[in-house]
């Protein structure tokens, strides 16, 4: 894993601007790091603050004194050289000039060294004297509650009397506690105040960092604002509108999961699309659903993804029922000892159709109101001796299965029809379970399988930018929250729900990111 360049926040995508990157409060660890701040955390221009490396009235005074004495000495040596030249000829004049220049240089350096040491003792923490700092701003002990030292540590340069220097952050003791209003302490030894034992100590509240005008304050200790989703091709106007709630209580608008089965890494995420959440009166529930599971022996991972049809009023319930039924049916076959390539995809999807129809009948919904498409996959939790593993996939409709190859994503299942009827579905649950298709695909070390609804699959198939972006960012396992952010991409006229379950195989050397 490469080291991030300075100033670069791990997890942020290059090329995007994040809203709170320039408004982060300066905490104890970063108070003196930014440009224009002193080591003590005092901003340039604040009382008692000066630019780093510059102490007005200090270095200028040293150079002025050294320069006057040095040039005076050099002038006297020059005059001596001229007189020597008149009296002893050209050789005497040359010798006089050389000796005069050397003497002037040494005299100037000696004066600068002496004045530098004396003034450093008054300005640098830990010097022989704890005098006031040179330059503009009040003295560090001008506040009645600003001690000159604590636990043997002097006042750091640039301290303005409002923050607690790091050198003072030691466990408090009764002798160190001093009630407010007790007056300056200076170099006088402090005595513990006399007060009842039961009286609580006055808490020291650190000052709240100032926030630039027009920016929202981020609570101290809270997580920073999430970076925005990636933009594919052009942003969508709908993505900027606020989310609305459906009229009836509905499942969560987003969901995410993370798991490991055998040596497989699994991440799943689902989010309601902008087209289903921005209408004040017609906002709908998330019509996508996913389910992940395993057999009893944990030798196989079982995944199902379903996409409810938008013109079906209860397709969200149909998708949830279908994914649960498919995973349970395939698990049962595996637990009964059915080999992977003998799994009955027809019976699994027929059982799912029956459960969806029964769910509608119990609620007196018409069968046409619970239409959904679905895809399921079974992935061995361990690789074959050659490092590969054969994956069983079955699907109905335009839900897709994608295999990540070294150069591109290859679509295994779920291709849409072309021509005037593109986008029109003819096979779906619960009406046509017999139209299910089965595929086998081989995954090598370091490869991935993605089961997606068309909210993600269409972007992979139709947008080269999105295809390359997902190929790069899903090269290795990501976190569940990252996957949720990725499928929440912003793209013009692509406002459907999005769901993806991604399965990664370990690399040839067994390494993981």
The portion of residues assigned to helices is 25-40%
Q: How many runs of DSSP E, i.e. beta strands?
A: 13
> What do we call the CATH homologous superfamily of the domain at 238-504?
PPM-type phosphatase domain
SS strand fraction:
15-25%
Strand order of the largest sheet: 3-4-13-12-9-10
CATH fold group of the domain at 238-504: Phosphatase 2c, domain 1
Q: Runs with pLDDT <50, length 5+?
A: 1-62, 116-156, 158-203, 208-224
Report how far the terminal alpha carbons are from each other: 8 Å
Question: For the report, how would you describe the main beta sheet?
Answer: 6 strands, antiparallel
**What structural class do the secondary elements suggest?**
alpha+beta
- Mean of the pLDDT scores? 74
Number of helices: 7
- What's the architecture of the domain at 238-504, going by CATH? 4-Layer Sandwich
Radius of gyration: 37 Å
Q: Could you outline the blueprint of secondary structure elements for this entry?
A:
Layout: H1 59-88, H2 90-123, E1 149-150, E2 153-154, E3 254-261, E4 264-271, E5 288-294, E6 300-308, H3 315-335, H4 345-362, E7 372-380, E8 389-396, E9 400-404, E10 409-413, E11 437-443, E12 448-452, H5 454-462, H6 464-473, H7 480-487, E13 498-504
Antiparallel strand pairs: 1-2, 3-4, 4-13, 5-6, 6-7, 7-8, 8-11, 9-10, 9-12, 12-13
Give descriptors for this structure:
513 residues, alpha+beta, Phosphatase 2c, domain 1, six-stranded antiparallel β-sheet, five-stranded antiparallel β-sheet, 7 helices, 25% helix
Architecture overview:
By secondary structure, the protein is an alpha+beta fold. Among the domains are: 59-123; 238-504, PPM-type phosphatase domain (Phosphatase 2c, domain 1, 4-Layer Sandwich). Helix content is 25%, strand content 16%. The protein is built from 7 helices and 13 strands. It has helices at residues 59-88, 90-123, 315-335, 345-362, 454-462, 464-473, 480-487; strands at 149-150, 153-154, 254-261, 264-271, 288-294, 300-308, 372-380, 389-396, 400-404, 409-413, 437-443, 448-452, 498-504. Strands 3-4-13-12-9-10 form a 6-stranded antiparallel β-sheet, covered by helices on one side. Helix 3 crosses helix 4 (345-362) and helix 5 (454-462) packs across helix 6. Mean pLDDT is 74; it is low at 1-62, 116-156, 158-203 and 208-224.
């Amino acid at each position: 894993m490469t080291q991030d360049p300075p100033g670069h926040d791990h997890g942020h995508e290059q090329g995007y601007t994040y809203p709170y990157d320039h408004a982060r409060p300066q905490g104890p660890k970063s108070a003196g790091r930014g440009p224009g701040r002193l080591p003590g955390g005092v901003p340039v221009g604040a009382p008692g603050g000066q630019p780093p490396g510059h102490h007005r009235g200090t270095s200028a005074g040293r150079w002025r004194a050294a320069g006057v004495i040095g040039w005076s000495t050099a002038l006297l040596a020059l005059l001596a050289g001229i007189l020597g030249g008149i009296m002893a000829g050209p050789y005497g004049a040359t010798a006089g000039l050389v000796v005069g220049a050397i003497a002037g240089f040494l005299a100037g350096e000696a004066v600068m060294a002496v004045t530098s040491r004396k003034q450093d003792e008054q300005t640098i923490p830990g010097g022989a004297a704890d005098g006031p700092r040179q330059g503009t701003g009040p003295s560090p002990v001008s506040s009645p509650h600003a001690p000159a030292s604590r636990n043997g540590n002097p006042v750091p340069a640039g301290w303005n009397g409002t923050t607690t220097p790091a050198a003072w952050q030691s466990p408090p003791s009764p002798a160190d506690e001093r009630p407010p209003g007790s007056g300056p302490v200076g170099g006088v030894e402090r005595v513990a105040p006399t007060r009842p034992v039961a009286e609580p100590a006055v808490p020291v509240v650190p000052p709240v960092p100032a926030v630039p005008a027009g920016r929202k304050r981020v609570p101290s200790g809270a997580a920073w604002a999430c970076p925005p989703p990636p933009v594919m091709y052009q942003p969508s106007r709908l993505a900027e509108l606020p989310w609305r709630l459906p009229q009836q209580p509905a499942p969560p608008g987003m969901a995410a999961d993370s798991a490991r089965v055998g040596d497989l890494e699994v991440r799943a995420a689902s989010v309601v699309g902008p087209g289903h959440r921005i209408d004040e009166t017609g906002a709908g529930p998330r019509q996508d659903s996913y389910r992940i599971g395993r057999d009893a022996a944990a030798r196989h991972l079982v995944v199902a993804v379903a996409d409810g049809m938008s013109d079906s009023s209860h397709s969200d319930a149909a998708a949830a029922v279908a994914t649960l039924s498919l995973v349970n049916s395939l698990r049962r076959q595996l637990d009964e000892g059915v080999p992977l390539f003998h799994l009955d995809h027809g019976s699994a999807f027929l059982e799912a159709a029956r459960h969806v129809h029964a769910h509608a009948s119990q609620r007196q919904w018409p069968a046409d109101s619970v239409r959904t498409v679905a895809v399921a996959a079974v992935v061995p939790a361990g690789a074959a001796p050659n490092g590969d593993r054969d994956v069983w996939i079955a699907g109905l409709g335009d839900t897709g299965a994608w295999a990540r190859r070294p150069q591109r994503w290859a679509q295994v299942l779920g291709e849409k029809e072309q021509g005037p009827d593109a986008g029109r579905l003819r096979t779906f649950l619960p009406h046509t379970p017999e139209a299910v298709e089965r595929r086998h695909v081989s995954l090598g070390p370091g490869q991935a399988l993605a089961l997606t609804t068309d909210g993600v699959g269409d972007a992979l198939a139709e947008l080269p930018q999105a295809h390359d972006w997902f190929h790069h960012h899903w090269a290795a396992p990501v976190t569940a929250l990252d996957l949720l952010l990725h499928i929440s991409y912003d793209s013009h006229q692509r406002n459907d729900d999005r769901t993806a379950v991604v399965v990664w195989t370990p690399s040839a050397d067994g390494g993981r990111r």
